[in-house]
Amino acid sequence: MEEQKLQHLFGIHPVMEAVKAGKKFDKVLLKQGMEGPLYRELTALLARNSIPVQYVPVERLNRIVKGAHQGVVAYISCIDYVPYETLIDTSLATSEAPVIVILDGVSDVRNLGAIARTLECAGGSGIIVPAKGGAALNAEAIKASAGALMRLSVAKVPNLRLAAYYLKQSGFRLISLTEKADRLIYDADMTGPCAFVMGSEGKGISQSMLELSDDKVSIPMSGSISSLNVSVATSVVLYEAVRQRMK
Fold first, then answer.
1. pTM to 2 decimals?
2. Are strands 126-130 and 153-157 parallel, antiparallel or unpaired?
3. What value, to the nearest 5°, has the Cα angle with vertex 161 and ends 156 and 164?
4. Which DSSP letter does residue 4 get?
5. Closest by Cα among 242, 234, 197 to 215
6. How many CB atoms lie within 10 A of CB 1?
């Protein structure tokens, strides 16, 4: 299992102490049906710190930990996340026209890694991902990124709309790449600060993010297959931005 490759903690008290110490978590698995005051204290602490939680059968926990896990297994994040405000403010302070990628539900770690690798090669500033519903930023994602995820700033947010509002207020142009758009990527102005929104492999970009976008663009397609893999599509639009800036 992929989970077994990640560093983990188990037990209620060790996990609570790690949260209080400021450790960053990828996710916490909790046994279904748990009750009690200590358990409620733990879940409240996780919620206050916006740590993703999954409720799972005890059999899954038993496969991960050979011992008294007390119904709690937590995975320590491989990435040091930054607040989205810090990512955005820093990017503007270090570049006249920074580029940020927002991943709206991209769930495959290899796609995540490939996107990060291209973004770093294209001179991008960072990635914004949802706290829930996205690919895990784990060792496999770092490997797929050729280490780019260790060099880029990464923000994990409970609601992508919060980051989108802040980006727009900070002068970024929010550009969604969607096959449903009438305009092509070549028609959009990508010479200033840009945040590219990329949707999930199955559902695409959420309606709420589309509504916030300043521009919706597509990649011209001539073959019988209607869309590109999300990591390939990201590469195409990022290097269109590079092309425009080199003119």
1. 0.78
2. parallel
3. 85
4. G
5. 197
6. 8
One DSSP character per residue, 90-128 reads HHHHH-SS-EEEEEES---HHHHHHHHHHHHHTT--EEE
pLDDT tens per residue, range 184-226: 999 999 999 999 999 987 889 999 999 999 999 999 998 777 7
What's the burial of 93, exposed, middle or buried (CB within 10 Å: 0-12/13-18/19+)? exposed
DSSP symbol at 155: E
pLDDT in tens, 160-187: 999 999 999 999 999 999 988 999 999 9
Residue 179 has what DSSP assignment? T
What the chain holds in terms of domains, given with CATH numbers, is: 2-76 (3.30.1330.30), 84-246 (3.40.1280.10)
The residues near 74 (Cβ < 8 Å, ≥ 6 apart) are: 8, 9, 10, 15, 18, 25, 27, 28, 29
Alpha-carbon span 38 to 121, nearest angstrom: 47
Are 229 and 107 contacting, i.e. CB atoms less than 8 angstroms apart? no
